[in-house]
Design a protein that fits this description.
4-stranded antiparallel β-sheet; 3-stranded antiparallel β-sheet; 22% strand; globular
Length: 282
């Protein structure tokens, strides 16, 4: 039984890693020229062809026509990171992976984001994505606005999650995060009302809450998926921003990836229990 518990804990920690990413040897927030070249010359045309397929649903929802897609230009690139969960600051925790996000921009800004990955052993590139840019662009814009207001360099650290992204930024007082949902949901409007970085969840809170959630669900391997908390529907950025409902069951946005991982963990736990039960029957 201990062997199965150990495997589940290992799986939980791996949920912090974005799929397909390989750890880089040293931190580097920049985008190498060969990565940009691949994104511009190969990935962007592939993404455009993909989105122009009528069956994909981009035309009529994200874009008005195929011509609008053809007019897109390659935008800014961002390196992706994973977080060392033993650390509680961005500078100590952020570890780059061989994966980058690029936007395809229209006349009114970023329209979609796609990812470029590099296989270190072969040096080959791949690409995937074409995710609606609205949520991530808004989160990056908020962080950039706050960084300029508070006189710090805008240097976002982005992590891919099962449910979207986490955008982290260092400020003078502390490191702060915004959790970004996938395109099926909207970024919580409360983020747009933030006037100071202190109103955002801290990076330390994000790591702490994630690990508490993993520990909670790994300790009770018999938990059922139906028992996972779904939140009250009221999203809080932090107790400071919405102190009136801080203890009324509100769901903090930085718990989204933790709960998503917990759901997968619970499913894995259920599978292990079934295997053990069958072994006992035999």
């Amino acid at each position: 039984m201990k062997k199965y518990v150990a495997l589940l804990l290992t799986f939980a920690l791996l949920c912090l890693l974005p799929a397909g990413g390989a750890l880089a040897d040293e931190k580097d927030a920049g985008v190498p020229e060969n990565v940009t070249e691949y994104a511009r010359d190969t990935a962007a045309p592939l993404m455009k062809a993909y989105m122009k397929d009528p069956g994909r649903g981009y035309i009529g929802n994200v874009f008005s026509s195929a011509e609008e897609i053809d007019a897109l230009t390659l935008g800014k690139g961002y390196r992706l990171y994973v977080f060392d969960i033993d650390k509680t600051s961005i500078s100590a925790s952020a570890v780059p992976v061989e994966e980058w996000l690029f936007s395809l921009d229209g006349s009114d800004g970023a329209k979609v984001f796609f990812a470029v990955t590099l296989e270190p052993e072969t040096g080959s590139f791949d690409c995937y994505g074409a995710e609606d840019a609205e949520n991530l662009s808004a989160a990056l814009g908020i962080m950039e606005r706050l960084a300029a207001k508070e006189g710090v360099e805008f240097a976002p650290v982005i992590r891919s999650t099962m449910s979207g992204f986490v955008v982290a930024q260092s400020f003078k007082s502390s490191d702060r995060v915004i959790t970004v949902p996938g395109s099926a949901s909207k970024l919580d409007a409360a983020y747009l009302e933030v006037k100071s970085s202190d109103e955002l969840p801290s990076f330390e809170e994000y790591v702490t809450e994630y690990m508490k959630t993993v520990a909670q669900y790994s300790a009770d391997s018999a938990i059922q998926l139906a028992e996972l908390p779904t939140g009250s529907g009221t999203v809080e950025l932090s107790p400071r921003l919405n102190a009136g409902s801080a203890d009324k069951g509100g769901f903090k946005p930085y718990l989204v990836p933790a709960i998503a991982c917990a759901a997968v963990l619970a499913a894995a736990a259920a599978a292990v229990l079934i295997v053990l039960k069958r072994k006992k029957v035999k």
